[in-house]
Amino acid sequence: MSIEILRNAEVLGARERELRDILLMSENIQHLAESNDWAEAVAQQYRRRALMDIFFAKDCAPSESQQVAEVIEAILNIDQQVTDILYLQRSSMLTDANLSRKNVRNVDVYLSHSLS
């Protein structure tokens, strides 16, 4: 079963539902990161980790190994995108902070000259 079919299927076995929940939660984490809701993204990460621990505590049947591998690959790609978003936002925040510090220094210089 492809990831797209797994994502949209109405009738799934218990293991497939667990796998789909992990995938959908990963996609939600990406959406939260894109929305800059890092607090909820981190909370979702913890919940996803718990689901993954439960899922992978059971042996993977040979019949499901291909699907599990595809979902793992998709999750790794999503996690990389979330990491990229985080680094871009971090860089942007550092740039903004540096600009703010520069502006404060400029105001201080202006005030020191105007009061002299």
Description:
This protein is mainly alpha-helical and 116 residues long. The chain is built from 4 helices and no strands. Helix content is 84%, strand content 0%. The chain is rod-shaped, with a radius of gyration of 22 Å. The mean pLDDT is 85.
Quick overview of this protein structure:
By secondary structure, the protein is mainly α. It has helices at 3-8, 14-34, 38-57, 65-114. It has 4 helices and no strands.
Task: Note the main attributes of this structure.
116 residues, mainly alpha, 4 helices, rod-shaped
Total of DSSP H or I helical runs spanning 4+ residues: 4
| Helix content estimate | over 70%
Beta percentage is under 5%
Structural class: mainly alpha
Low-confidence stretches: none
How would the global form be characterised?
A: rod-shaped
Largest beta-sheet characterization: none
- Kindly state the number of beta strands: 0
Order of helices and strands: HHHH
- First-residue to last-residue Cα separation: 76 Å
Overall mean confidence score, pLDDT: 85
